[in-house]
Amino acid sequence: MSKRFQDKNWCQRMRIRLDVNNMFSEMVGEEHGLLRKEVDDLKEEIKKAHENIHRAKNEGKMGFMELPFTQKEVVEEIRSLANELKGKFDNFVVLGIGGSALGNIALQTALNDPYYNYKSEARDNRPRLFVPDNVDPARFKSLLETLDLKRTIFNVISKSGSTAETMSQFLIARKAVAEEVGEENVSRHFIATTSQDSGYLIKIAKREGFKTFYIPENVGGRFSVLTPVGLVSAAFCGIDIEELLAGAAYMDEICRTENVWENPAYLNGVLQYLAYKKGKPLSVMMPYVHALKDVADWYRQLWAESLGKKVDREGNVVNVGPTPIKALGATDQHSQVQLYMEGPYDKVITFLEVKDYGAEVEIPGSYKDIEGVSYLGGHTLNELIQTEKRATELALTKNGRLNCTITLPEVNEFTMGQLLYMFELQTALVGELLNINAFNQPGVELGKHYTYGVLGRNGYEDKKEEYFNRPEKNDNLII
């Protein structure tokens, strides 16, 4: 693959840009707009946060920041396997949930043809990609019945190997594959992406002889898209994972300064934080390019799971966290924008836009006698979607609604690497400003523990007892 990211001029042309004009009072008015002074007044807090982040990085506690620079050998190993198996499998299935699935989906949607699974010329002898990301029985059963399992390879992703959803998928898929190809051939149909030194999946992988890739211990699930969690499926589907990491490295370089006005991750994080503190807890991400629609889904987990916390670092109950919402332009102009325009002043809208869509479609000129339709003729879909974004942006701004825009010159591996890394670093910065641990998820665990107990996992008997002794519901309130 070409290494165009080695050309500094090309990198500069491909730099993504953050426009925060519409976050400030000059544009949206004094009642809801932020002041530049409010940003400057946080100078010491930002400096401390910057120092904490880089101290943690140097201590090996900020693993996602290492990924653009430490995976050369891993990238070569992944690419070698993808090339070796090219043409040998028709389907690549990711068995994982949450952080083990959303990044895979976002990369595929962004960087491959919109109908990749249906167009053989787009795949170029590479496998279709399927990411079930759930344990809905009808859906998973139908997937296994639809695929030719003799021509299917599965990537089982779980650091611990105890994720109930993923391991249930694996047990079902393994049985189905064994019935199709025989026990002696099962191992060639599975890859395990897991912890190198601990957990149940690595034990299974070694016993079965599965090809394995490792998730760094200091990288949590929602920050793992640039580890083998996301890189393996990307490489199998023809995505240039070296360029993806180069984009992340480029954004890391841009964001090394503590000067908030020169650091897009910090500036966006600070503005989101200030808006949250001033009564705007809803964070809407609205791409006006379909390729980035699943980036909003990935961001939703990153923002919610990282920043929604009960206690701060001192153990004080604070119950903080902005609520992320995904939308899609122009689709959701016809569903959500009415609320954003005239509802409560409790939201910040982040638009994602692209300069070059990679295609241009002209609208034919017809029905000259029907002015309400004929005016579209001679324009393009590109003009239409870009104008609709800017019109929505202007309307929100005129109505005093905070919004900002991130612009990608085009959607490619380099710009995607920048975008994902920027959001991850932005999340770490906001965690520091909120004085919470942005890298744990204690609120997710209790529901898991009840499930473990009910299904008979040792050590969770007390949770099983709590589950079956839960308060009875009042039938009169079920109508």
UniProtKB/TrEMBL annotation:
It is an enzyme of class 5 (isomerase). Keywords: Coiled coil, Cytoplasm, Gluconeogenesis, Glycolysis, Isomerase. InterPro entries: G6P_Isomerase, Phosphoglucose_isomerase_CS, SIS_dom_sf, SIS_PGI_1, SIS_PGI_2. Pathway: Carbohydrate biosynthesis; gluconeogenesis; Carbohydrate degradation; glycolysis; D-glyceraldehyde 3-phosphate and glycerone phosphate from D-glucose: step 2/4. PROSITE patterns: P_GLUCOSE_ISOMERASE_1, P_GLUCOSE_ISOMERASE_2, P_GLUCOSE_ISOMERASE_3. Residues 32-59 form a coiled coil. Pfam families: PGI. The keyword Cytoplasm applies. GO terms for cellular component: cytosol. One of its GO terms (biological process) is glucose 6-phosphate metabolic process. It is found in: Cytoplasm. It comes from the Bacteria. Its EC number is 5.3.1.9. One of its GO terms (molecular function) is monosaccharide binding. It catalyses: alpha-D-glucose 6-phosphate = beta-D-fructose 6-phosphate. The active site is at 305 (proton donor), 334, 448. Belongs to the GPI family. Catalyzes the reversible isomerization of glucose-6-phosphate to fructose-6-phosphate. This is Glucose-6-phosphate isomerase. It comes from Halothermothrix orenii (strain H 168 / OCM 544 / DSM 9562). The gene is pgi.
